[in-house]
Design a protein that fits this description.
Layout lengths: L2 E6 L10 H10 L2 E6 L4 H13 L3 E5 L11 H13 L3 E10 L7 H18 L3 E6 L4 H9 L6 E3 L6 H9 L3 E4 L10 H7 L7 E3 L23 H12 L3 H16 L3
Helix pairs in contact: 3-4
């Protein structure tokens, strides 16, 4: 089995004391690729530094909707420069809309989401999307941006069946997290995951968040090695051979982000 954690935040300080050991555990769980996702200019820079000194890591640059209130043209320019300078930068994001926690005003989120779509398009980088409780506004912005044939993934998908099919129609991949493994919280996701074509799925941890079962019962902090639990559960749900499905999802991730 060959697995790729397509979305992590292992630049988080909670990994500082055991970073190399955490990567070793990931390899022992057949995780041979990890995307370290930027959420602002500071984390994007740290992710790049990690990727420069650790094999099998790639990165993205971007501004999370929670951080939209601190975004600026200068920040976008800095991220563009980083993307052009460092070959480990393979995507733009995570960017989008989050109207659940509202850490940034909706106006700021929309403004900088649109600017980041433009930046990613200009650099021809796939986009890592974040959407939560945007009540259709996220899709409106995507459709108006007219991103024909521009690749992307809807990270930590948690929407409706109708939204999912619209994302698929737009050509995007669907990112599946450890929520899939949680008995009550993951019920809807398990049903919808049956409807996602195998060649349009990515698996992810969102580490250190969203720890899957069975690790959730013992360990609070998620890490890339735990993406194996997502893979095993997904294969079970789809009644698929886990080795063959893992090959398909690895190839999906490479098709989106490039080889490592």
């Amino acid at each position: 089995m060959k697995l790729f954690d397509s979305h992590s935040h292992i630049d988080d300080q909670c990994f500082d004391n055991d970073f190399d050991e955490m990567l070793k555990r990931a390899l022992e769980s057949s995780v041979y690729g990890i995307m370290v996702v930027g959420i602002n200019d500071k984390t994007s820079k740290k992710a790049i530094e990690l990727a420069k000194t650790h094999k099998n890591l790639i990165t993205s640059v971007g501004v999370h909707p929670h951080d939209a209130k601190t975004c600026s043209d200068s920040v976008i320019k800095t991220l563009e420069t980083l993307a052009l300078k460092h070959s480990c930068v393979r995507a733009w994001g995570e960017t989008g809309l989050d109207f659940n926690r509202m850490h940034s005003p909706s106006e700021s989120q929309e403004k900088w989401f649109e600017r980041q779509i433009y930046a990613a398009s200009k650099l021809n980088l796939p986009i890592i999307f974040h959407e939560r409780d945007s009540n259709g506004r996220f899709l409106e912005i995507l459709e108006s941006a007219n991103l024909k044939e521009h690749k992307g993934v809807v990270h930590c998908f948690s929407g409706s069946k109708e939204e999912m099919f619209k994302y698929l129609d737009l050509g995007y991949y669907i990112g599946i997290t450890g929520i899939l493994t949680i008995k009550k919280r993951g019920e809807a996701l398990r049903s919808l995951s049956l409807l996602v074509p195998e060649d349009r799925i990515l698996i992810e941890t969102d580490a250190p968040y969203l720890t899957p079962a069975p690790q959730k019962n013992k360990i609070r902090r998620n890490e890339p090695g735990f993406v194996k639990s997502v893979m095993l559960k997904l294969a079970q749900i789809k009644n698929a051979d886990v080795e063959e499905l893992s090959k398909t999802i690895w190839q999906n991730t490479i098709d989106l982000f490039g080889t490592i």
